[in-house]
């Protein structure tokens, strides 16, 4: 190959690489807000129009100074409830203060509930204890294999399980004494336990973990998710599993794989509606 041709190809490659930098930067820093509607005959009265905003897989990340861009986007959703579905922290980038600073600010927007992710489970027992205590001090309600009833009259049951407990008898036991007419919403980190959520009779599941499949292609969706492997089934959006609906957030941060493609960081809001409401 002639020297001039090699030089031209090298220049073209350099130009292409330089041109791609803004694309990949925006793919990984531009926050998006996704909105879904969950309809059920169990939603009525005060629950009509109730808005739940989900923060998932932050991985110790900051969007702007003091997470100002993330907090502004959360506030713009006008949430009645905030839920954090795990991996606030990141085991590959130790430290919790950035995550704790974010939740201190989140609790000023709406009541906030949290369940653990796999990265929190990689902490030592001492680190976990200190982290969960700090979350509670910040005003976050930590649900570790427990259920709470939110609201009076037309309320609902909010169930939270630890990262690996969604496939065990723990979830079944938490759901065992529920009144059949009562709406129940589950917070659980991993979407690939879907069949267990359905078997337990959950109405709505909010989950994350899959990072949208990391890189998404038209017609294929996500390419890989931990726990599901190549071409994962559950990566983003709403899935109906019999009488159970599962909402999977693409999440906000990255971890071991530091790059997203056609898969911008996502904040999810789910609005509750009656079965026949407009």
Descriptive account of the structure:
- The protein contains seven helices and 16 strands.
- With 278 residues, the protein is an alpha/beta fold.
- It has two domains: 1-30; 32-274, 4-Layer Sandwich (Purple Acid Phosphatase, chain A, domain 2), CATH 3.60.21.
- The strands form four sheets. The protein has a six-stranded mixed beta sheet. Strands 6-7-8-9-15-14 form a six-stranded mixed beta sheet. It has a two-stranded antiparallel sheet with strand order 10-11.
- Strand 10 (216-217) and strand 11 (221-222) form a beta hairpin.
- The longest helix has 27 residues, at 3-29.
- 40% of the residues are buried.
- Mean pLDDT is 91; it is low at 5-18.
Please give the structural blueprint.
Blueprint (H helix, E strand, L loop, with lengths): L2 H27 L2 E9 L10 E5 L12 H9 L4 E5 L11 H10 L5 E4 L2 H4 L3 H13 L2 E3 L3 E5 L5 E5 L8 H7 L7 E5 L6 H7 L3 E4 L8 E2 L3 E2 L1 E2 L3 E2 L6 E5 L2 E5 L17 E9 L4
Parallel strand pairs: 1-16, 2-3, 3-4, 4-5, 7-8, 8-9, 9-15
Antiparallel strand pairs: 2-16, 6-7, 10-11, 12-13, 14-15
């Amino acid at each position: 190959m002639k020297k001039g041709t090699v030089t031209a190809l090298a220049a073209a490659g350099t130009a292409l690489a330089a041109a791609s930098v803004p694309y990949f930067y925006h793919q990984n820093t531009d926050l998006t807000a996704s909105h879904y509607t969950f309809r059920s005959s169990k939603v009525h009265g005060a629950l009509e129009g109730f808005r739940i905003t989900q923060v998932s897989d932050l991985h110790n990340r900051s969007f702007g100074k003091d997470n100002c861009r993330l907090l502004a986007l959360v506030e713009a959703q006008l949430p009645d409830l905030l839920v954090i579905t795990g991996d606030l922290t990141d085991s590959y980038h130790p430290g919790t203060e950035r995550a704790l600073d974010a939740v201190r600010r989140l609790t000023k927007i709406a009541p906030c509930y949290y369940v653990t992710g796999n990265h929190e489970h990689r902490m030592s027992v001492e680190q976990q204890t200190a982290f969960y205590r700090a979350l509670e001090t910040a005003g976050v309600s930590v649900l570790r294999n427990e259920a709470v009833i939110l609201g009076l009259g037309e309320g609902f049951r909010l169930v939270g399980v630890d990262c690996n407990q969604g496939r065990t008898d723990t979830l079944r036991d938490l759901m065992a004494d529920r009144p059949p007419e009562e709406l129940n919403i589950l917070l659980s980190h991993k979407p690939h336990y879907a069949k267990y959520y359905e078997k337990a009779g959950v109405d709505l599941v909010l989950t994350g973990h899959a990072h949208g499949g990391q890189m998404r292609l038209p017609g294929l969706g996500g390419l890989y998710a931990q726990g599901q492997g190549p071409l994962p089934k559950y990566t983003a959006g709403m899935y109906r599993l019999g009488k159970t609906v599962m909402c999977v957030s693409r999440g906000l941060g990255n971890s071991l794989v530091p790059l997203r493609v056609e898969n911008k960081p996502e904040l999810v809001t789910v609005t509750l509606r009656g079965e026949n409401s407009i």
